Automatic annotation (TrEMBL):
Mn(2+) binds at K278, D302. The chain crosses the membrane at residues 19-40, 52-70, 517-539, 637-659, 679-701. One of its GO terms (molecular function) is cellulose synthase (UDP-forming) activity. This is Cellulose synthase-like protein E1. Thought to be a Golgi-localized beta-glycan synthase that polymerize the backbones of noncellulosic polysaccharides (hemicelluloses) of plant cell wall.
Amino acid sequence: MAENEYVPLFETRQVKGRILFRCIAASILLGICLIVMYRIRYFSIGGKAERWTWIGLFLSELWFSFYWLLTTVCRGNAVIRIPFIHRLSQRFGKELPGIDIFVCTADPLLEPPSMVVNTVLSMMAYDYPPEKLSVYLSDDGGSNLTFYAMLEAANFSKTWLPFCKKFKVEPMSPEAYFRTASEPLNVEEWPSVKRLYEEMKMRIETTTKLNQIPQHVYKQHKGFREWNFVTSKHDHQTILQILIDGRDTNAVDIEGNPLPTLVYLAREKRPQYHHHFKAGAMNALIRISSRISNAPIILNVDCDMYSNNSESIKYSLCIFMDEEKGDEFGYVQFPQSFDNLTKNDIYGCSFRVIQKLEVKGLDANGGPCFIGTGCFHRREALCGKKYEKNFRFDLKKLNNTKVNERASLLEEICKVLASCTFEHNTTWGKEMGLIYGFPVEDIVTGLSVQCRGWKSVFLDPERDGFFGVAPITLLQLLVQHKRWTEGHLQVFLSKYCPLLYGYKKIPLKLRLAYCAYNLWAANCLATLYYVVVPCLCLLKGIKLFPKISSPWVLPFAYVAFSHHAYSLGEFLWCGGTFLGWCNDQRMWLFKRTTSYLFASLETILKLLGYSQLAFVITTKVADEDVSKRYDQEMIEFGVASPMFNILATLAILNLLGSFGTMKKVTMHADKGFKVLDQFGLQILLCLVLVTMNLPVYQALFFRMDKGKMPSSVTYKSIIFALLACTLSVY
């Protein structure tokens, strides 16, 4: 194609509202400067307690200001990418590259096989030439139940894939499709396909419940014999089965069309070898797939993240195959979306503003981070290759690898690639594949790819590319964020610290933006101080803020109001609701005072050698009562946890502080206005915290369902709060 005939496959546009954001950010920065001036000018010269509480509050405000700058630095020039898939089809036709799709699961109890099957089927059903699709499932649970479910999926795909293509089905997950779509008129296949799916689902769920493979099924496939040699899920040989061989002319659906390749892998595990969790599973899949299909593009998804957009592959190829800029990009990241969110997103799981605005700011400064799922990778970039400016990648030629071995022979040849000892004395986990040693292997891997010269892109099409399952209990959410926060902090304290590792490799703005995530944990101390100390000082009569009648109250009021008002505006603009924003602010408080605190403590223990790296899997199942309360937007407590002890104690503490102040105002009418003038902002802060904790009070004192706060937590929190109030007075 001549240079003057070049037409881009994607377009980059600036996000609207940049000037407004910069003006408001500048005004907030001015307000922060005035607050700093106030703290310095009116430094407390009273007693020792007054001085130290003033210093602590000042340091907390300095930290909040610094962290606000980190989160703001990339927001001013956010961009959106618009792919043109019609141009892709016109330009390349059928000369499209192969795609290898990796699905990872680890526990059949927490991640039910029926859910895994839906994800796998949705990946096989993309609007893409099936002979160029290969789907790989990594089963780190080494479960014959998951293997059985994959056999059922392979059989049902012969009916499901032609049904999807014929009627342009979206989403491509059978469960999601039949749950959300109404039966169309004049579609004879609908009832029969739905019946076949429900029968398959029932067989899988019955087998999972009984924890036993039916004898007649066990004899039908040679793969089940592998489990005769399995000691446990932590001690077994490599199990590799090519369930559908896309090269086989007999591998066709009910209409005679070819099927995608489907591969099951349970990599070798031995107690004496570290398996490196999801990162190790992904690296094993990279090696196995390089021998079987060797597609130049890899898509990885979690087992609960089904495909919701049949064009997602083509969207990503518009980035990779653009003749002018495509060679620069190492990966294309899609948003992480969820299909089980309530109307007002009770647990603030949508990442609405982060994905609609913050990540798009990263995209303008070198690219978004890799978030572990819904990401298309260039195989060379993921395998450690450095970007070379003048080197051109021909994705079509890279996919011309032909494999001639029979499937059974290929299975035996590839098993060594997933053995425990294969990576010894190699750069796997260090320079090749996903990086080992962190709970957030995705973040550090994306950073290392960018530091090798590659850029990345964030694609947010109008129809969500993928849907997953969000936590439906508060403890699930807090534990999940504890793991993420712990991993981010470990990255910051390691050689992969973005400020140092990315020096002269990626833009300064991008390094600072990474730090905003890496330093989540550091927010816990400042937040705890702001939640606890003003309340206790209110009881003791220590003033920490300017009087309501003083002009110095204006910068405090302006910063608080403008920041939250703009935050609300952004949330509504991104499709949220007012109650959704309130829930988001509440979860922000809960995570900072629990998840971030425990993540910090765990990281310190790990650095001292008292704790080992662990990977906590978030359960994807819940009983009917929990699901019902979730749909009613009732926060689920239900179990005793140290995190709930902290939340309940802080809530009661601020409630007692508010009651104590109200008592002073009402019982001493002559001094009431003076108290309000002196302590107005502290009282307002306490009341805001009390309002945010209303669901906690309901769970402590009023709810009678199983999701209420356990009695042990209630008693402990009351004792702790009363003890703190008593000690503060003396």
